[in-house]
Amino acid sequence: MKLLSLLLAAALGSVTVVSAGPAVMECWLVEDGEGGRLTKRPAALLLRQGPGEPPLRPDLDPELYLKVQDPTGALQAALGRYPPGAPAPHCEMSYYLPLPASATWAGGLNPQHSCPRALDGTWLMVSMSSRVISLSSLLRRQLESQRDPAFITMATAVLTVVSHTPTTHIRLGQDALLDLSFAYMPPTPETTASLAPGPPPFGLEWRHQHLGKGHLVLAATPGLRGQMPASQDGAVAFATWDDNEPWGPWTGNGTLWLPSVRPIQEGSYLATIHLPYVQVQVTVELAVQKPPKVSLTPAPLVWAAPGEVPPELVCFVSHFYPPEGLEVEWELRGGPEDSFQKAKGQSWLSALRHHSDGSVSLSAHLQPPPATAAQHGARYACRVHHPSLPVLGRSAEVTLEVAGLSGPSLEDGIGLFLSAFLLLGLFKALGWAAACLSTSKESKEKKAQ
């Protein structure tokens, strides 16, 4: 485990060299205002600085311009992996009050009924979210006398929780892996004075929320004894500290594994790390998808005479998920000028058919207009667009053959030759059989005489 931790640190260090991440993170401090409304004030986190004094920010309240010390390195490492060209994550801060964990299964994390005085002070919860990261970090603002210089406030990152899979797209029926890592450094030596050396016990909680409903998926407290709630949906978590330093900092792993994901498991997953009197939470999204299969009938040819209405075309779009976001387009390709156009005619969709695995199917119908001689050889195509498919979608097509306009092809000639050859052989065989029967009959009559 120690070797794995060193390899991870080396990997993060090498990535940081390539991209050190943002030096300053612009945030908003969100507070409760009058009438239950939320108020927002600008804030900023100074994560790195060059030589000399920190850059001035006269636009900020000095208490909201925070120079962040990151003893675990987790905050810097997570942002160091941030793609240089990606939009900056949305960042919000709020004041935080240390409290014992409310869940009964995590009660063993609280040695005392109230928070120790060593945790007094001003705490801030910082949350960052984007398409590439979901991060929350608990900061403790240092004492007023430690502010240096006067226009900036010092703060220390105590507990940082990170997921590099803020949105996971998983195929229906496959296993999902929701990434989660965390790092902790006690804010003061007094905090760990009553604890044994080494990483403290912690609680890991994963909750699922979807369509206004939520439930506990998994809870674990490595290092503590006690009855735990049973995990749901076969969920398994890799809940462990990755290192065993006597006084910290420590890094840990809380990745969640969900086997054979079903549609009812999509939604938001809230991961919470509980430590004595402090908790930090991040949210990751799980989206379940299954691309549709597309087939078109009648196939491979549609026959019609000039002026005649071709047979109805049926496009089967089967076993896809989610039901939302499906679009079906009818195209006519080829024709007189090898054109590409939207197919004319009357089109409609059937109702959804639901399958036992949670996927759905439907059929798209097109009644083409009467065929013309110019449309001979054109191809009717059914193109399907769905969130699980590439931008161009998926299509199936059939060819329109107008009767009376097809000249005999080489294949037709070969077919006619073979048919004639077989018929000639058949006639010869029948003649031979008739001759044999006639000869046999004459022989029998002679014997009878």
UniProtKB/TrEMBL annotation:
InterPro entries recorded: Ig-like_dom, Ig-like_dom_sf, Ig-like_fold, Ig/MHC_CS, Ig_C1-set, Immune_Resp_Modulators, Tapasin
Q: Which SMART domains match?
A: IGc1
What positions does the domain Ig-like occupy?
A: 292-399
Keyword list, A-Z:
Immunoglobulin domain, Membrane, Signal, Transmembrane, Transmembrane helix
Among Pfam families, the record links this protein to: C1-set
- Origin superkingdom: Eukaryota
Give GO cellular component annotations, separated by semicolons.
Answer: membrane
Alphabetized Gene3D superfamilies for the sequence: Immunoglobulins
The Gene Ontology biological process terms listed for this entry are:
antigen processing and presentation of endogenous peptide antigen via MHC class I
Q: Which residues are listed as membrane-spanning?
A: 414-437
Signal sequence span is 1-20
The protein's name: Putative conserved plasma membrane protein
This chain's source organism reads Desmodus rotundus (Vampire bat)
